[in-house]
Design brief:
alpha/beta; two-stranded antiparallel ribbon; 14 helices; 7 strands; 56% helix; elongated
Length: 309
């Protein structure tokens, strides 16, 4: 919206911009109202002054060079290029300048509880900058035509430079794509037992059921569409949601504490899962759960039904 406001001032087509801002507001404002009103979202955790994004103790210039290589120097060269004809025409430069705010803001302030999530703002700067660097490489490629009356060896160097620069700018991404395409590295989210557990939950529980699980990112319940009393704490924290009280109560339920039954009634829990993920991350009181009706067991996962009086 900030970039849009700047573009509206630079390219004043008021009727179209009015339609844009009305549409954007209709989409955004209800979400902001819903996320911050009577919810667990801690809005103040979304902003804090910090310099150099996620550089830690590193020098800010060295940090950005390690992360972007020659991209920023080439971007500056594209913007500064004069010669016979600009690489970036004036109108394109005016269009690009508001996007630099995305880079500046992300380097002076934290705009999300998780500092690394500033990349969601930096991404817009990067997308807007990439065509300008591409224009510079194209200009280098075509410089041979301008140098055709000079020594052939001199005339070929701009194209050699364009190819080498293109390789340095794309090699890291190409390596990532190759690693995925060649299946040289895999990361398992759900094992066979977990998938069997998800099938059991789908068979034995109605849609909309509230299920107590270990608060981890890869629980099989997430394959079923059922609700969990508490999701992955890392995701909750990164969205500014206060989860600490509920997390402590989940631990007390699994430990079979004196108020476990009261907490199950308070939250309206319908089912409980006790499996490898619960035993790995929580203290599980097996005797406490033996009193519940078991709806099924597979792959080391036990599904219990909570019967309310």
């Amino acid at each position: 919206m900030i970039v849009g406001a700047c573009l509206a001032l630079l390219f004043p087509r008021w009727r179209l911009w009015f339609a844009f801002f009305i549409t954007a507001s209709v989409l955004a404002l209800p979400q902001m109202w819903w996320a911050t009103r009577a919810s667990a979202v801690h809005a103040s955790s979304f902003f804090e002054w910090t310099f150099g994004w996620d550089r830690g103790q590193q020098n800010v210039l060295w940090f950005w060079f390690k992360n972007t290589g020659l991209f920023i120097p080439l971007l500056v060269a594209a913007l500064a290029w004069r010669g016979r004809e600009r690489v970036v025409p004036k109108r394109l430069l005016l269009f690009y300048l508001p996007f630099t705010l995305c880079f500046i803001i992300s380097n002076v302030a934290k705009v999300s509880p998780y500092l690394w999530d500033n990349i969601k703002v930096l991404f817009y700067w990067y997308v807007a900058s990439t065509p300008l660097v591409a224009l510079l490489l194209v200009r280098l490629w075509h410089m041979r035509d301008e140098l055709r009356n000079t020594n052939k060896l001199i005339a070929i160097w701009p194209r050699v430079a364009a190819v080498l620069l293109f390789m340095t700018l794309t090699l890291a991404g190409a390596l990532d794509v190759w690693r995925v395409a060649s299946a040289t590295e895999e990361q398992r989210e759900f094992d066979t037992g977990g998938i069997a557990c998800a099938a059991l939950v789908e068979r034995a529980t109605p849609p909309g059921s509230l299920i107590l699980i270990a608060p981890t990112y890869n629980h099989p319940v997430f394959l079923t569409g059922r609700r969990a009393l508490l999701g992955y704490e890392g995701h909750l924290w990164s969205q500014g949601i206060r989860y600490e009280t509920r997390a402590a109560e989940v631990r007390r339920i699994y430990a079979g504490a004196a108020d476990a039954d009261a907490l199950l009634r308070q939250y309206g829990v319908d089912y409980i899962i006790v499996g490898p993920l619960e035993r790995a991350g929580l203290q599980v009181n097996e005797q406490y759960f033996a009193r519940f009706e078991q709806m099924g067991e597979t792959g080391g996962y036990h599904l219990y039904k909570v019967t309310r009086p």
